[in-house]
């Protein structure tokens, strides 16, 4: 016997069954290989986007909240290829819209003066009017920190630019250092022009290099002067100052440590100098360690003879000095200190000491006192002619010198604790390093590739979402196999009679199917490619809510195609091998039909007859039930699980009870909670019962479900934990106290470890971490600190960020003193008017204000989109389950020919036989639909009460349609079988 000829003949003879088997294999292989191709394509697209974002950049050197000299980019270590960049956030006003943008001051884009170029995404967003006349608003960054006292009250600057075209993606138009797939809105202009607008001429805050630069390489070419630290010789003294006016506390401590005898100076403006005989308003004073041979200690003060005469005091008399101090968000309070006059010096002596007082922009450089432009609440009515005359003659010459030890701790701010340091000899600055002055270094290509390749696994996601289709395809494959073996039972019996062992027969049947499976798997890979292309097209369009970007390309690797082919073929062959063996055992031992008892002259008990028929072919029944019930479970449960806003408790815990989310491009440095802050921000009319929560932000990567990349360090929000405790935000778990839902445990650090709360979704999916894990961050002065994931929150509007107590936040990033986020709580009736009022008042800050529930809905839309994908694939699986059921019914009816003849011989009418078979076959779909629905309701639990009525009606209508379709098919199939049986009988 020629086995090959036998196998070919059998395959041809039973090709209808093998076609169904091949179809099932194609579907299964297409799903497996297609899911892997989708993962490959998304991963390669994200990887390619890294090159699109950063070009050939290997190293990025930046200063977080300050600037450095442009000459650094000319050092030999960069090989002459470094790009000098001045970067800032900003916004464009366009027909009432405020479009947030990243502003790139560059030298290499061939941009005419007074013009700007934009990337394609921003060009698509701009209206025709905006492209002809771009109004760009920027933070008035300046060298002097905006969050400090004694600075101008103008926090924004603007540029009016003409439109000079677009910068394509291939030329770096989509440049971004954030590990996000979302394409940024970029605007490019001449660096010098941007520097002039924000008063940072000759400065950079970013260098991009195509070389790998190490920290050692940077340290070798960096000098303190690079970061604006100046060491000058004044009257045989070395004096160290900063272009930012303030010298950072760590820098001051390092210089004092390395230079014995260092003399610290801190210039300040006092509200008044007062004695029992007189007072002087708004005077520049300087805190100092020693002066004119006198060591100031305790409560000593040195007065000029002008000040002593005006106050009517002499040596050892007592005077008081009042001054403002500022906590966060420039919340001012006035303090007073009582001091002893230790010495009186000639005013001429202080006048000749030109650097005794620092130069504060807006204060030191004006002609009259009444021209002072300061953020301080200066009462001009207190300034008399004598004060104006002093200013005309002596300007900011200090009227008093105060003990540094006594007052500097109260005057120190987030930006520094001195305005100058004097040394008796050459300055030793060897202890300073780039990190101490805010210079940081990252490797964006390496970080970007790691983030892209370790991000959301769309291959595994689609494979898990489509697992039911694979299951249904396997069931669909088993049905024709069972039917084919049943039809070949006589042939198989003959082979056994001829001496063929069951093992040999199993091998023959298996070898028949191998060629079919291998060919079908190959076709399945091709079908998987089509499935991938369709899925990517949907991700770029209808399913865009899951990815919030577009441009996914079909980029599978050949290894992925091979793995998909092998996986599909192996799964099919293993299943077939097991199924063939089990079916042959079943053919050898056919189930016996239990004898039926006649109940009466009216005939047999039909119920027993129906259940006997099901028991006889119970494997088929269970297979059909499993296929249909699983499909109903998936479709019904996923459909009902779509997020809605019917659950007020989820909305309340997600928004914390706050009504509006406000995000600004320019930080707010004033406290909206206070009357003074509201007046500064033109919010004096804000209702007093509106609750406000301002939030600081350290900007890093977005770890929300909107970002497909793997995030290592998410953004951190500095927030008032006591306010969160009073809100409706809820802690799910806390490592400090599992039973407590209080935020109080997060208000203190444990040694060098700072606790933070995190949204549960971000913890599990964005970071893929657990509570108790730590994340390292670099501080402004270059130290590394550990942030402990100490508590998880219910799904909330804070998704993608870590939440840290604002006081702990200030310890790590003291220079971030402006809030970029604010939450407002008001009644629903107040909300529309409040939103309009905030939009108008904060328009110069680029405020984007949305209902907090809308922000929550945006995050939920990602989940809903994934559920839509799952629902779509579940629907396809349900169709396969229906296909399996159709084959099952056909097989059942095909095997019932002899039984139908038996019924006829017993006197059953055809309509009764049809009714009997129909009732038997209805049990499976009825049980599957009811079972699937009950199980899905059990899985949903209490959340079913939050399902909207429309979703309920749609789900029920679909289940009724499925049931009706099944019943109609069964009735017609049974009638067709009875009709064919009649024709054969005739």
Number of helices: 29
**How would you state the average pLDDT, rounded?**
85
Q: How many structural domains?
A: 5
Distance between the terminal alpha carbons, to the nearest Å? Answer: 40 Å
What is the β-strand count?
34
Poorly predicted runs: 596-603
Strand residue percentage? 15-25%
Shape: elongated
Decide which structural class fits the backbone: alpha+beta
Rg over CA atoms = 39 Å
Structure description:
The chain has 986 residues and is of the alpha+beta class. The protein folds into five domains: 190 residues, no CATH class; 146 residues, no CATH class; 208 residues, no CATH class; 143 residues, no CATH class; 199 residues, no CATH class. The protein is 44% helix and 21% strand. The protein contains 29 helices and 34 strands. Strands 25, 26, 27, 28, 29, 30, 31, 32, 33 and 34 form a ten-stranded mixed sheet that branches. A six-stranded mixed β-barrel has the order 3-4-8-5-7-6. Strands 13-14-20-17-19-18 form a six-stranded mixed β-barrel. A hairpin with a 2-residue loop joins strand 3 and strand 4. Helix 2 packs parallel to helix 16, helix 16 runs antiparallel to helix 17 and helix 26 packs parallel to helix 29. About 1% of the residues have low confidence.
